[in-house]
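Q: Could you fold this chain for me?
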Amino acid sequence: MKAALVLLPGLDGTGTLFWKLVPELAAELEPIIVHYPPDVPLGYAESEAIARQSLPASRPFILLGESFSGPIAISIAASAPPGLAGLVLCGSFASCPRPYLARLWPLVRRLPIHSSSASLLSKYFAGRFSSPELQSALNQARKSVAEEVLRARIAAVCAADFSNELRRIRIPILYLRASRDRIVPRTASAKIKRLVPCVRIVDIEGPHYMLQARPEASAEAIRGFAREIGVGDARGS
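A: Sure. Below is the predicted structure, expressed as structure tokens.
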């Protein structure tokens, strides 16, 4: 039985944006995609409870937290659930990555989120790595989630601080860092490295949405990590 890779999605919470990464990994790791409710505003604690329901009970697994879900993955890993062999953080953070956002959030929280154009979102999240296919996927994911849900998740990010939980983790950690990330700055990964020096950081040429824009490179790093910690299957490559 293959080890599992539990995928916790970014801010949209749909899980649909893993569509290009999953085929790159399926030969070695069985993907389990977590979905958060698109119509129920939840904070980190409630979202974590949903994620925990998808953890495999009888085999080893790797937990991946993308962007928004990094704190959830950190909190779960800190509790050392049975079978958890490694943690992957992708363009994520242990605490609010841009502190000024927390200060300004009360002023901008009422701005319409869905009025933002797909091309504008794609510019900031994917940059020059964007494509019509990726723009369409981002737009569909965004429109499928209620505005109040997205606001609740942004508010959770603004208030996040999972530094203590991060310090308690005793399994290997891989951090995938995009070289062209306009959303999460390098200070976020630097803080994680400072709190847990053994974290291995892999830089990937790409945007914040590196799993979508650079699925092959991302999958290669994840497969290598899985083999290093003894749960990857080299025969699947």
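A (continued): Residues 39 and 48 are 16 Å apart (CA to CA).
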